[in-house]
Task: inverse folding
């Protein structure tokens, strides 16, 4: 489905769309997820590419989710696939910062450990 | 083509109830409008169902859970709609949020869907979810994640059911009704 209203803008390390932003803070080695992410599977490609790229650069990475209110199943698929990619790469140090006040995070983030046992998940 | 799979239950007038019908023929539903519709139901029922929820944590959990499940159901209905309307029928009764989302699918797809739905309910959803994600990672060209129902079952403890009926006015299609139920207070 082509829908111009959800087409992202910005650079390849700062992806913005209606109601969401995903950006990489290079000095802090942290990807920030903000807003509401309910895209179709193919629309997650720019974010997947960003995650793949930063994982290639360095094994240490933070994912900050404390400002991400909603994520649909296609987005959860993207996160879990990233965890598998990190597991296959080996020797990664990935930490996820989330919020226990955001329901989807308490329900779905813990599954990341099944795909990447070394991942650290911190829920504020 | 009639038949029920899983725990199919429709809302009744015993509690508050809302129906919303999209007519996507000339004006297709945009992807982000699925989210808007899901959030409307979540915000509406958090305040009317059985006096509404008062604890902040309970309200957050209800809005998050209903918003997630309904958004997935509406995204599916819009994505796979083969003509006709998309109808959302939701209510709260006996401590449960009950919703049925209906859309038409091609008659040829019914047998495959029956098998898929039965498999979802037969296995351990957490195990099936793990398997599916591993398959998705191994096949990056897939355009659907297949995680919607699995996350509803595994992470939200939703009770799901499906029903197939003849599609009104179109003998080539079937009317698919997908039912989901969630506890209003999850703990």
Result:
């Amino acid at each position: 489905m082509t829908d111009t209203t959800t087409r992202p803008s910005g650079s390849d390390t700062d992806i913005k769309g209606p109601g969401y932003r995903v950006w990489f803070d290079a000095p802090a080695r942290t990807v920030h997820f903000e807003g509401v992410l309910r895209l179709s599977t193919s629309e997650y490609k720019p974010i997947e590419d960003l995650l793949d790229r930063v994982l290639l650069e360095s094994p240490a990475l933070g994912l900050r989710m404390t400002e991400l209110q909603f994520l649909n199943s296609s987005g959860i698929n993207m996160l879990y696939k990233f965890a598998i990619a990190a597991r296959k790469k080996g020797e990664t140090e990935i930490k996820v910062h989330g919020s226990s006040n955001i329901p989807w995070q308490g329900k779905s983030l813990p599954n990341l450990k099944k795909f990447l046992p070394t991942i650290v998940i911190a829920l504020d | 083509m009639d038949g029920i799979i899983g725990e199919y239950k429709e809302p009744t007038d015993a509690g508050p109830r809302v129906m919303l019908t999209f007519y996507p023929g000339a004006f297709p539903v945009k992807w982000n409008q699925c989210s808007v519709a899901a959030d409307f139901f979540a915000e509406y029922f958090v305040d009317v169902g059985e006096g509404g929820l008062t604890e902040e944590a309970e309200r957050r959990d209800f809005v998050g859970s209903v918003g997630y499940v309904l958004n997935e159901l509406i995204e599916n209905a819009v994505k796979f709609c083969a003509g006709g309307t998309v109808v959302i029928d939701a209510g709260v009764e006996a401590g449960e949020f009950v919703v049925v989302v209906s859309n038409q699918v091609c008659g040829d797809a019914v047998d495959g869907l029956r098998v898929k739905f039965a498999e979802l309910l037969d296995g351990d959803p957490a195990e099936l979810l793990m398997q599916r994600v591993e398959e998705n990672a191994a096949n990056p060209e897939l355009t659907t994640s297949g995680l919607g129902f699995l996350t509803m079952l595994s992470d939200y403890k939703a009770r799901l059911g499906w029903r197939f009926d003849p599609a009104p006015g179109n003998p080539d299609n079937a009317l698919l009704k997908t039912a989901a139920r969630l506890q209003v207070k999850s703990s």
About this structure: Residues 19 and 35 of chain A are 6 Å apart (CA to CA). Strands of chain A lie at 9-11, 14-17, 20-25, 30-37, 60-71, 93-98, 120-123. Residues 1-5 of chain A have pLDDT under 50 and may be disordered. The two ends of chain A are 36 Å apart (CA to CA).
